[in-house]
Specification:
The chain is α+β, with helices and mostly antiparallel strands and about 100 residues long. It is about 20% helix and about 35% strand. The protein is globular and about 30 Å long. The N and C termini lie far apart (about 40 Å).
Length: about 100
């Protein structure tokens, strides 16, 4: 019985983590072309896109919900709001994102 309760607890924790995460998808060329990467994380937290993708994302959309993309690593400064319809031609400035 204890094993069963523990498994239910783990299942609930995993479900909460999945529900509280969403993805921003970025491409290195306009019009959702070229190399792409998915960026995930906890909703409400600022996430750096990585050195590999910093200032390289040219188009982006979300899988669900809304994310703001920022021109600085700490989610301050200039931003755009991206949703599932996306932006097909963004200047090379994205350094971080925060989903809500």
């Amino acid at each position: 019985m204890i094993y069963f309760k523990f498994n239910i607890f783990v299942l609930i924790i995993n479900f909460v983590f999945i529900v509280r995460s969403q993805y921003l998808i970025g491409w290195d060329e306009p019009n959702y072309r070229g190399r792409s990467a998915g960026f995930g994380g906890t909703i409400g937290q600022c996430h750096y896109v990585s050195d590999q993708w910093n200032d390289r994302i040219r188009s982006a959309r979300t899988t669900t919900g809304v994310c703001e993309v920022w021109d600085t690593y700490d989610c301050k400064g200039y931003s755009l709001t991206v949703d599932s319809e996306g932006y097909y031609n963004i200047g090379k400035f994205i350094s971080a994102y925060r989903c809500r």
